[in-house]
Amino acid sequence: MSKDKPDSQKMLEDLLSVCHKNLPRVDEGLITKAFKFALEAHKHDLRASGEPYFYHPYEVAMIVVEEFPLDDITVVATLLHDVVEDTDFDLNLMRKEFGEEVTEIVDGVTKISGIFKGQDITKAENYRKMLLSMVKDVRVILVKFADRLHNMRTLEFVSPDKQKRIAQETLEIYAPFAHRFGLARVKWELEDLSFKYLNRDTYEELVGKVKSTRKEREAYIKRFSDPIRKKLDEYKLKYEMGGRPKHFYSIYRKMMKRNKPFEEIYDLFALRIILDTENTNECYTTLGIVNQMYLPVPDRFKDYISIPKNNNYQSIHTTVIGPEGRLVEVQIRTKKMHEIAERGLAAHWKYKEDKTTTDKDLENWLNWIRDIFEGAGKDETRKEILEDFKLNLYQDEIYVFTPKGELRRLPIDSTPVDFAFEIHSNVGYQCIGAKINGKIVPLDTPLHSGDQIEIITSKNQHPNKNWLKFVKTQKAKSAIRKWMNKEEEKIAKTGREIWSKKLKKLKLAFSTSEVSKIARKFKFDNNSQFYQAIAQGNVNIDKVLSDTGDKVSEEQEKSLAFDQFAAIARKDAGGILVDGKSSGILYSYAKCCNPIPGDPVIGYVTIGEGVKIHRKTCSNLINLSKVDSDKLVAVDWPGNDGTMFVAGLALRGEDSPGILNEIAHTIVSYKNTNIKSININTNDSTFEGSVMVYVNNLEHLNNLIDRLKKLRGLYKAERFEGSQ
Fold it and tell me: What is the pTM for the complete model shown?
């Protein structure tokens, strides 16, 4: 690596310069020693990009000193973080050369790296606990964040499979962890880089759309902010003002959650006002100025200054109606609040540096992130140690925490629903969702000791009978049974109303006994179950009504044929990807809209049946999303990057000589389309049947249909679909 020596001196000078700029104290000798030690240790190693491996620990150290400028010990440990794992040097030598503190950080980073090798990514929640349990010094996590951030920035040099695995791991583990540590900038960058490699087409499409609308947005924000600037100047307030950067993964997540296109995501218009003051009252003065200028939206106001988030985030959020009736989100905060929002832990410690930690501080930190506490006075050791929270548990009990840090004891394998009823019966009755450690999870997720649970409630929610399958506490079981009959009656009543409206529209009438016959025919024990199934979208009324008289066998045959085709097409496509991956998540296809490969689809999280896959145009889904859009998840068919999928064509026409040959030739001659199978039945002088073909996309399929319709003697050519 002799050819790099001239550069290495410049690199060292740059690193020391940034250290002096950002750190309170700098041991130049120790940093220089670590720099040269790492340079020598990695001198024969290369990265996947072909550059010397030493560039990696160096760049990671630069990230540490720029993003989390804690102390010089962290910089030293970062330069050395890969030495033990990737070279012949061991911990004993490191301890001798650099001391116990540096060695503990390096050892912690090495152990964390070992956790993820050969493990199943679906256990992400367990990994977070393993991380916390193995770390003795919080700086280990910060070094690992920086390490992962640099790896993500250089991910283009590894294989596509490795790119996706690392990106998925980053999205599921590191980004949420960065959020819990209040590292907003790191979180956003990790999410966007992961999104880029997991869903490149959508990522590039969003980048293009954001870029194309940038000038318009900037012009609008200037028009919106000029009157505010004028007023702030009148009040002689010192401030910085600018548009808030929008992050692509955040935009994508909102599009999926709300089932809306890019153009309808309202808060692309955003303004951030950062006040250069220690007086938080000036934030409220600024809020008053904004609200005088523009009409505020009442339910979009959040005061995180009076009530900070658990990760110490403080800011005022308000949404107002700007020019042309557009909604603009405005954030107001002080410079100190902004630095804490961007840099989390590091900024907080910077501002706490001249104070010794009090018991109240300790309590607040434990509430924020249960394992970590702050112990840094100016003249004390800067080592931030992990609180040992290994509780002496009974074998059949677990200990969990409320969002406020209160301890609750529950039976082992309890779920968020058990926790909700433990808090209060009304919380249980109205429980509609749950977060474990800040992440939304299904209500049947088993809890583990040390979890922090937040229950999401809705006044319209009542207990669900499926909860009885997984709750553990007697309190939860009895309350659910109490509400169960009432809930079923309510659902049945809704289904009965849907049924009655449909009959009235078709001018039909069925007696109670006739409805009972239909219910039994469709394997329901009674009319109430039948009506409930209608309300929940599990029964297609059109199919039920068509299944009468002489049409019974014909409709059943068509339904069976479609079901067989759908099963083949879905299997051939490779099933469904949930959130961009095939992760073994339970899912099924909604009977109300019968989605098949090629259809734009979206998932809806149900209780007991996993994710229901609907077409995006499904009327039932649209109604469900109005009630609870949080249950929508992004799903897609695999291989949208050019892979063929099976589509069915339903044909009917005149049974003339050579018609089958003409149909086959018309299909094959267009883009060399391959035919999977043809099934034709003749009746007198007509024929009816289906053709299964491989197509690239819906446009390919529609063009085929248009060509077939031009054939003489062909009465019908349309996509083979189930009844909707």
Answer: 0.48
Let me know whether 217 and 82 are in one domain: no
Report DSSP letters for 77-130, one per residue. HHHTTTHHHHSS--HHHHHHHH-HHHHHHHHHHHHHHHHTTT--GGGHHHHHHH
Q: What is the SS3 assignment for 34?
A: helix
* Domain containing residue 384: 353-389
Are residues 183 and 92 located together in one domain of the fold? yes
Which residue shows structure tokens 């970062």? 78
How many domains would you assign to the chain?
6
Token pair of 409, please? 């004891």
Q: Within 10 Å of residue 347's Cβ, how many Cβ atoms?
A: 21
Q: How would residue 122 be classed by pLDDT, with cut points 50, 70 and 90?
A: very low
Which residue from 616, 626, 621, 584 is spatially nearest to 606, judged by alpha carbons?
621
49 with 118, same domain? yes
Respond yes or no: is residue 85 known to be catalytic: yes
Which member of 45, 86, 361, 636 is catalytic? 86
Write the pLDDT tens digit of every residue in 416-466. Answer: 999 999 888 889 888 989 999 888 999 999 998 778 899 998 888 778 778
Catalytic residue among 7, 85, 363, 699: 85
What is the number of other CB atoms lying within 10 angstroms of the CB of residue 607? 16
Find tokens 């012009």 and name the residue: 219
Judge contact between 66 and 176, C-beta under 8 A. Answer: no
